[in-house]
Write a structure and sequence with these properties.
Number of strands: 12
Order of helices and strands: EEEEHEEEEHHEHEHEHHE
Structural class: alpha/beta
Strand order of the largest sheet: 1-7-6-2-3-4-5
Largest sheet: 7 strands, mixed
Shape: elongated
Length: about 260
Amino acid sequence: MINGDLFRPAVLSGKTSNTAYCMGKLVANANVDTKNNTIQLLYNDYLESFSEGYSGYLFESSIIPDKILSYLEKFNIPYLADVRNINTLVNNDIVEIISHNRIAKVLFRANSDDNVLVVTNNCNCNCIMCPEPLPVRNELMIPLDKTMNHLRLIEPSTRHLCISGGEPTLLKDKLFIILNECKERLPHTSFTFLTNARMFSYKNYTEEFNESRPKHILMGVPLYGHTSQIHDYITNTSGSFVQTVNGIKNLLNTGANVEIRIV
């Protein structure tokens, strides 16, 4: 049973004795032929369904049979036992098992239309209401290969996906790799792209973005006031108003759909 949309934690804690890591798509209480990049989730009543070869494992129980535990420890296979709120997970959810932190991080909800692909934590603004601390926005990067692995695990039938950061355009040319993958793998998915649009004040970048972007994409751009004094005060970044306005104009000139967001 799913506890409902109001209670679906993004991080689930558990117990483990190894330090391995993996990202994979969930298969719950069953087996599949393709086990690479797949995580088997087992409730207490389904331990007999355990099968070797998966990238990782999640167990409802804190007591794992010795034969299974020996296999996991011998080959340092990522797993968590006694996973809290395990019943909020469903087939085809995408999860990271981060054993050294003893958590399973939910990256994608298969039964939701509100998923976000976070491509970077870096940002070139310092908005007064931003929930991310400045060290995260300045230093912590998300590796491109991790983003691509995440993207390739998403079901092609996904109806909507948001691309966000940080500020995604700070990836520069790497962003085009991600967008081309979105266009190829998810041709029927609608996208929302959250950006401060400052990089789009450069026409060449805007044109390259336009060539790479998926067909169905909405650009969500925050504009915090009608003057640079108001906007730049909120972003804590001098000149950001002029760049954002010019970026919006350049996007519109390429035929992009732009949604102005007021916070």
